[in-house]
Amino acid sequence: MHKLSLLFALCVAATTSNAQTPDAAPAALPSITLPPDLARVLTDYETQWRFGGDSLTKLFAEDAILTVGGKPPMRGHAAIRAHYAGPKPPLALRAIAYAAEGNIAYIIGGYAMERGAPDGGKFVLTLKKGPKGRWLIFSDMDTGNSSPQRRPAPPPA
């Protein structure tokens, strides 16, 4: 009986030491250094983001897909230009993972409104090489870090 109590106590201690309280946020994954040609994609995105519309759209492939929270996917330069129309506040991007092989690559990262601030959201960029060998964004998927708002429960019948 004593061995069983000790085993139970160890299991409880292990699970409670690893458990997070509901208010505790997981630690951010560390930033990584990208190769220069992929780092350029993020620095160009940060720069062109401020101008929006045409400036930012030039970083995307003609057939690019944009998937942002709360909206259906959009395809092509016209849709991307319309979505990003107008000037924007500063944006800071950081990479946490990437891979590149041949003409395809991806970058996974976090974004904030200023360098060094906690991530307000995360993104996945898939890239393809354009006709001149420059990386272009084929898909841009991002979402904020805050929990989505739950719909209120229907009134009791």
Give a quick rundown of the structure.
With 157 residues, this protein is an alpha+beta fold.
Structure description:
This protein has 157 residues and is of the alpha+beta class. The chain has a single domain (29-144), classed as Nuclear Transport Factor 2, Chain: A. Helices cover 27% and strands 31% of the residues. It is built from 4 helices and 6 strands. The protein has helices at 2-18, 36-49, 53-57, 77-83; strands at 60-68, 74-75, 92-101, 104-112, 121-129, 135-144. A 6-stranded mixed sheet has the order 2-1-6-5-4-3, with helices on one face. The longest helix has 17 residues, at 2-18. The chain is globular.
